[in-house]
Amino acid sequence: MTNYDLRAATWRKSSYSDNNGGDCIEVAPGFPGVVPVRDSKDPGGPALIFGVDAWSAFVAGVKAGDFPPAR
Hints:
With 71 residues, the chain is α+β, with helices and mostly antiparallel strands.
């Protein structure tokens, strides 16, 4: 298992996130081969680390409407 130092990461909010404090995620670009993801409401909390291929497949699924909105 690889540990990533995310303390100096530059996070950006997903363009799919709303601006009302709702369901928001942030990603930190610039980590070769992986995409760190965190909950924007808990910036000091844990981050998930996804492989680039897995993250790309997830984003493609979101764009294609494969995931119904949460209720």
